[in-house]
Amino acid sequence: MGWSRSLSQVLLIAILLVGMAWSRFALGAEMVPPNDRMLYTRMNAAKRVTVQRISGVPSDSCRPAFVTPSDTIACYPASYVVRAPKGEWVRDLLDLSARWSWMRGRSALSPEFAAAVGVHFRGDSLDADWILSFEPMSVLIRINGIPVASATIPTEHHAPLLNLVQASLQKDALVVAQRDLEEERHSAARHVDRSTYGGCDCWIEALFKSPYKRVAGPHDTTGCYAKPPVPTGTRRPIYPEFAKEALIQGTVILHALISADGTISNIRVFRGITGLNDAAVDAVRRWTFEPATKEGQPICTWIEVAVEFHLAE
Hints:
Layout: H1 2-27, H2 37-44, E1 48-54, E2 78-83, H3 89-97, E3 102-104, E4 115-123, E5 126-133, E6 138-143, E7 146-152, H4 158-168, H5 173-188, E8 203-210, E9 230-233, H6 241-245, E10 250-258, E11 264-271, H7 277-284, E12 288-290, E13 292-294, E14 297-299, E15 301-309
Parallel strand pairs: 8-15
Antiparallel strand pairs: 1-2, 1-4, 3-7, 4-5, 5-6, 6-7, 9-12, 10-11, 10-15, 13-14
């Protein structure tokens, strides 16, 4: 009797091990969270990548293996589908995704998760869906229709991710509205903990344009100085040729520290644009100011600077 029970236990363990191995084989190595670089390599090498505006809930009973292949993410109704933008768009999306903390299955998703945008990766041995929810901002990856990993997107990555999404779905009103909403949230919280800014608490809550133009009534809300800084010399940014050729344009927002001697002693890129940040920093670093004063003495001051790059029409 004891021998029979031992044999039964051994057989049961063997069946479980074979079942686990078969499940892993059937689902593929992608069952590990997507910070596995092999999955990213395969997704980046997909032969066709499409972006889809999801306009409804998926069918739980639907699996891509049993439906006619198409550009859309199988089982998700779409308002429209477009090819992913050319260039580095896919790589930028995957590189950003690789920086998130992923959990298996749907573990990281809120009950309010609602698919809004999907990216479909199709290759010879790959059928992967990257699915985004706006509110709350989170993402799900499905392989062959099965959820394998999910992540809650860090707040600091909301804006760059929405910029990527908007670049692929430029005319979608919901996507544009969500990006604008995120910019408003970002702007409202832009004056972060000033203790991290080199011990200088003085702050101007207004933008200095480049080339410099005094905006209406820059003011100090900290009670730090009696007289605001005044520019004595500014410099236009040099538009990088490669950025022009790539049609890169927009406004770079910098945080700049004006020292008590009127020079720029520190610059931080607050809201950057890849390809334009260095040119913006190089220009503003050469600006000079008559420093802010308090009780007749010069003091340091942080300001925001908007450096604009616009292609000639």
